[in-house]
Write a structure and sequence with these properties.
The complex is a heterodimer of chains A (261) and B (233).
Chain A lengths: L1 H81 L5 H29 L2 H6 L1 H15 L3 E6 L8 H22 L3 E9 L2 E8 L6 H9 L4 H12 L3 E6 L6 E8 L6
Parallel strand pairs in A: 1-2
Antiparallel strand pairs in A: 2-3, 3-5, 4-5
Chain B lengths: L1 H17 L2 H9 L4 H19 L12 H23 L3 H24 L7 H24 L10 H22 L5 H7 L1 H23 L20
Classes of the chains: A alpha+beta (261), B mainly alpha (233).
Chain lengths: 261, 233
Amino acid sequence: MLFIGTMGMLVLTVGLVLFIIFHQRKVSRYQRTLQKMEEEQQKILLDASIRLQEEERQRLAADLHDDAGPLLATARLYLNENLVNQDKATQLQAIFQARQIIDDTIQLVRNISHSLMPPTLKNFGLESAINDVFQKISGSGSMNASSRFHDYRDRLKPEKELIIFRIVQELINNILKHSSSSFIHLTQNVHGDKFYLRIHHDGRGIIQTDFDKLNKSNIGLGLKNISSRLRVAKGSIYFEKDISQTYYKVTIELPKDDPYQ
Amino acid sequence: MVKIQIIEKLFLHILTYSYLLLPLTFFLSRSKRRDDFIIGVYGILFFILLYLINPDHRYIPESYTQVYQTSYTFCEYLFFTYLLFRNITIKSFRIIILLFSIFFIGFLLYSHLTKSYGLVDSIPVGIETILIFVFISFFFYQNFKSTNDEYIYTQSCFWLSVGILIYLGGTFFFNILVNHIDLSQVVKYWFLTYIADIIKNLLFCISIIVYVRTPHKEKSLHKSVPYLDLDMN
């Protein structure tokens, strides 16, 4: 009886353990399949929405640049002809003012166009585009900004460059808006099959736990946008404070793809 | 009968020294986890406890048998419960474990002071077994509820739980019936409890190894990438 009872208990125990293992395996497999499907669906949606957004921006840029600019320039010419019958002083005054306004408008339209789709990025690549942005910030005198690319001999694909550029733009905007820092510095390098960008600043910043929290909350749309873009590019981002506690670091890691010709 | 006693002695020896595998695995695996350290301590303590009652050189006087039995049950309950408690995160379960533990320790003391045990302290051990079974079911329930898609056997606590389950399952009948059946029957099959105990120790070793071999997430990314950090000098 003792032997049978003990063996019975052991068999029951082993049976229970096996049941738990198999049941949990089944549940895990089901969950993984669901998660994979969900991730794929999300990636498709994100991809579509980002592509649509970029296409729209490109179209807007083209419209503003190719249509609005020449139209305004022509208006300036018409303005000249209508003023023929006026006295000379008035004519000169009006022409001067009209020209100035139109010039400003052309400049404005050009600026909008450039902000929507930076031509430097399209024509000269990520390094030039980012250097350009940093030079502009530094030139404004509000902050000391610099960037350094250590290894960008092989350009990334244009769509990836665009994603990185938008992320950097978003991060810089946040730093300018919220951090009150005195400097911002960007470094780039590649290591193994990974591409890295790191931004440093000495103002108020966030660390990874804050980023994760903001990502889950209803606020922080810009940060969510960064996450979405990174998910499409299969990249990751890490927010941390330096060991010296004097500045914040934001590191972007992306898989390095085949060199872009 | 002599043959059976030799087999029993052999298994008792194997069991006693199998407890040393626990601290050995802890040191060799270089685990820094508190759970694994506790398992190591458990191994050393129970090696000493079993060594003290080895029939070849029994160091515990007969008059202290009941104190020994109570201490053994108390330590065993404490170690098992502590290890499970650390791996159960649901608050209500943790409160239940604490309440049951207070009740059990109180009962153990009461039982020690008011009752005299036979070969084994059947009632406290029986209650201990049932309580630990309940706590293990809490752990499995928590796992079923979890959305974590990792397989259960990649968790070190799973191996701990299986070890405890097999040990308690294998000894439950003996501990309950030992004072009510013929001694020759008990002696004949006593070694089965030792086998269950040895299996438990092996599974505890596996739990340490599983923890060490499981990759843990890096806290910070790419510390070693050159030229990414600011040169502050």
